[in-house]
């Protein structure tokens, strides 16, 4: 099993947990929770596959993805009472998913020989789209438009990946550096309420 | 004309009626009503074709679909005053569409040799997606997240289809059994307020 | 550079400006404004490419599109204080984008040999979809469902294009006539509060 496959599995798993948690917070019925878990988990990768024309999309060719989501779903349900700090768990799993999906998006963009700026766009879209669908379906303001730096962390991570790749670092170092940067930027952004500078005058 | 084609036509027709009725209840203008009828009718099949990579999507290759939707649209407008029991008519057409689209989705999944669990997922998504888009565009809570069993009926129907298919029953029996199960489950669910058991403690 | 390419560039540019303006009116942060500019600008063409199966979608094959959007974004930000009449500017750029995208959609539909009714549908969807995504992401009622004639202008423009094309007029005449009709219909519709006749009785 390659490092890519391990990160792939962990990303799908983390987003499935994050989707289940948001849906349970909204007190959806068991099927609704599963739909949200599924949409959050595969949403970004499905958009990526549609845009580059890699159909049938990834989860149709590999049933492991479905069983992985089902497992994450039951774990989220089973441990829901232990998850006293639901918001913290949710934030953690969402951030991990964000980091791992950015790596997968960048990797797939590279293997398709797209221009670097397109690769960063694909990576950012595939990392953040799952969370956006989740929030739209749950009727929350999409996480991407809330104050803290979110998609910006993916952009920074994807650029880091491309630079290290260009400098011929090996895969393990690239993957670990990229995910560390994304997770760190996101954690610090939320902790210290970082946000992008605004160009509106104070009212 | 095969039974598949007849069910296909009826499914498109039923969803076009259901879309027109929801849009008229929202008092949209004639063009808005047509857009909603179109999106409800072709939405599920378009998603299905995009995900499996069958492009151009079905309604681009077959103009009959467009004329069928136009016909349904005018029928809905013409009979709108007879439709005193608008909610009941809407529910009926939506349920018929749900049953027929599940059959088509399962059939197409089978002919692409997907794994059974993927086939059930495709059938359920293509059957319920039209109604979800309709409700999002009309600013209603998507039907799939309301209390009564909805997508669950598609899952049961699609599994029934696959079992009967595996047991070598003929197409007519499979189609009629599948649609009967979906329509019956949905009717009973609404009549008796069935819903899935919940795992939240009472507040 | 062909007339088609010039119109293509202008359409992308106009929609990127219109997206930036709506996002700034919502006081989004700089990255949010860019996402909205991007989604508005490429949304319609991306949907078109997905439906007809022309992947990777257009902006992945041509990085000029990205740099064009970035330029439009900075122009919108830079001139935001001069844009006292933000609503008027927004309306103008949205209308120009609508006209140009209708032409591109019709042209691409023709080159794929679709049936005329399908071509009109593709042109209308690709012209109006960018504005619809923009409005959904910004939590406004989609422009297509507001009172004034919107998608109807695209339908009229696309039909005009097809008739002139059938009568063998040259490209320049077709492009200028089509965009003039769309822009004029839309301007007059807003000025005189034109809307489609309704079939609901007064309440």
UniProtKB/TrEMBL annotation, chains A, B, C:
Where is it mostly found? membrane
Question: Which residue range or ranges hold the Glycine transporter domain?
Answer: 6-80, 92-165
Which Pfam family name is an example for this entry? Gly_transporter
* Bilayer disposition of the protein: Multi-pass membrane protein
Q: What is the lineage of its organism?
A: Bacteria, Pseudomonadati, Bacteroidota, Flavobacteriia, Flavobacteriales
Q: Which UniProt keywords apply?
A: Cell membrane, Membrane, Transmembrane, Transmembrane helix
Q: Name the coiled-coil region(s).
A: none
Q: According to its UniProt record, which protein family does this protein belong to? A: Belongs to the UPF0126 family.
The compartments listed are: Cell membrane
Under InterPro entries, the record lists: Gly_transporter
Q: What's the protein here called?
A: Trimeric intracellular cation channel family protein
Q: Could you list the residue ranges that cross the membrane?
A: 6-24, 31-52, 58-79, 91-110, 116-137, 149-167, 173-194
Task: Say yes or no: keyword Translocase present.
Answer: no
């Amino acid at each position: 099993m390659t490092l890519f496959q391990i990160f792939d599995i962990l990303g799908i798993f983390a987003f499935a947990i994050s989707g289940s948690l948001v849906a349970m917070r909204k007190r959806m019925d068991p099927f609704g929770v599963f739909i949200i878990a599924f949409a959050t988990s595969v949403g970004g990768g499905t958009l990526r596959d549609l845009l580059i024309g890699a159909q049938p999309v990834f989860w149709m060719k590999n049933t492991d993805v479905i069983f992985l989501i089902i497992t994450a779903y039951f774990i989220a349900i089973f441990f829901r009472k232990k998850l006293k700090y639901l918001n913290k768990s949710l934030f953690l799993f969402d951030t991990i998913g964000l980091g791992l999906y950015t790596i997968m998006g960048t990797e797939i963009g590279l293997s398709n020989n797209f221009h670097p700026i397109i690769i960063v766009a694909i990576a950012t879209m595939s990392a953040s789209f799952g969370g956006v669908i989740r929030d739209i379906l749950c009727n929350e303001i999409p996480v991407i438009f809330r104050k803290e730096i979110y998609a910006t962390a993916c952009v920074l991570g994807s650029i880091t990946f491309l630079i290290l790749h260009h400098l011929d670092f090996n895969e393990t170092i690239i993957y670990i550096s990229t995910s560390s940067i994304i997770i760190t930027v996101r954690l610090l952004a939320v902790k210290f309420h970082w946000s992008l500078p605004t160009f509106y005058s104070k009212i």
